[in-house]
UniProtKB/TrEMBL annotation:
Keywords: DNA-binding, Transcription, Transcription regulation. This is AraC family transcriptional regulator. Pfam families: HTH_18. The keyword Heme does not apply. Residues 163-249 form the HTH araC/xylS-type domain. InterPro entries: AraC_XylS_family_regulators, Homeodomain-like_sf, HTH_AraC. GO terms for molecular function: DNA-binding transcription factor activity; sequence-specific DNA binding.
């Protein structure tokens, strides 16, 4: 990945997955904006817990959310998935992540730069993965160079980093010189979530990277949960299933992913960083 993109694109993942049969898989909450560019068919996504309609798009875009998504497939999927940082949402999409919070949408509905909206059609005309990845990188690098929207204020970015590392909300507020209430207003304006909700998602994200590699009790301790039971409750609340269920259903398809945080709606990871 071009160095200029690294502050804005947490992960860029080409994927080619054979599930063996039609079905769905879970898209877990993440601290990043998820942009998926499918190749064969529009990506069909819905919120797993609601009866809302299915959203189908050639460029599926999701803001930060606190419930799982259901990604529907016909037995296989190919495309490129991007996990954008909060800074990346401003720089590449030209808007704060809060504008997309809780949304399932696509590029045509969000008023992003024309060059980005044209990217799905241009990808379909290319014959190989290297060519597709190179096109995505070139497009995003050009957008980053234009600096679409001012970066988040430094205090908010620092507070979010502290929350990601497990600091209490009041500790993060004191560190950056804000009241808890003021910090809450600024964090919601930036990402669309309260500081506590953002922290819960960051903790889930950290646990997801360790599940299947370490015992659940060790995962709970390493990620800041009170105990294994706390981990299980939070996983059920945010992911819609027990950690063991996710391991059984999803882990075979994501076990080769890299350890970069913020993988968003995980597919079989063939990251070309």
């Amino acid at each position: 990945m071009p160095p200029a993109l690294r502050p804005h694109v947490v992960a860029r993942t080409p994927y080619d997955v054979d599930f063996g049969a039609p079905g769905t898989h879970r898209g877990l909450p993440s601290t990043t904006i998820t942009l998926v560019l499918p190749l064969d068919d529009p990506l069909r996504v819905s919120w797993a817990r609601s009866a809302g309609s299915l959203h189908a798009a050639w460029a599926s875009l999701s803001g930060l959310h606190t419930e799982p998504a259901a990604i529907h497939h016909d037995g296989s999927q190919r495309g490129i998935q991007l996990a954008l940082s909060l800074d990346g949402a401003r720089m590449l999409l030209g808007r704060p992540a809060a504008d997309l919070s809780g949304a399932l949408t696509d590029l045509d509905e969000t008023g992003v730069p024309t060059e980005l909206r044209q990217l799905p059609e241009r990808l379909h005309d290319l014959p190989s993965w290297p060519a597709r990845v190179a096109l995505v990188d070139r497009t995003l690098a050009r957008l980053a160079a234009r600096a679409g929207d001012p970066a988040p204020r430094a205090e908010v970015a620092h507070a979010l980093a502290l929350l990601t590392r497990g600091a209490r909300v009041e500790e993060a507020a004191a560190e950056v010189g804000y009241s808890r209430r003021r910090l809450g207003s600024l964090v919601r304006a930036e990402c669309g979530l309260t500081p506590k909700a953002y922290q819960r998602i960051a903790r889930l994200e950290a646990a997801r990277r360790l599940l299947g590699r370490r015992p659940l009790a060790e995962v709970a301790a390493a990620c800041g949960y009170a105990d294994q039971a706390h981990l299980a409750r939070e996983w059920s609340a945010l992911a819609g299933c027990a950690p063991t269920t996710w391991l059984r259903e999803e882990f075979p398809f994501v076990q080769d992913r890299d350890e970069t945080p913020g993988a968003g709606w995980d597919h079989d990871n063939r990251d070309s960083n």
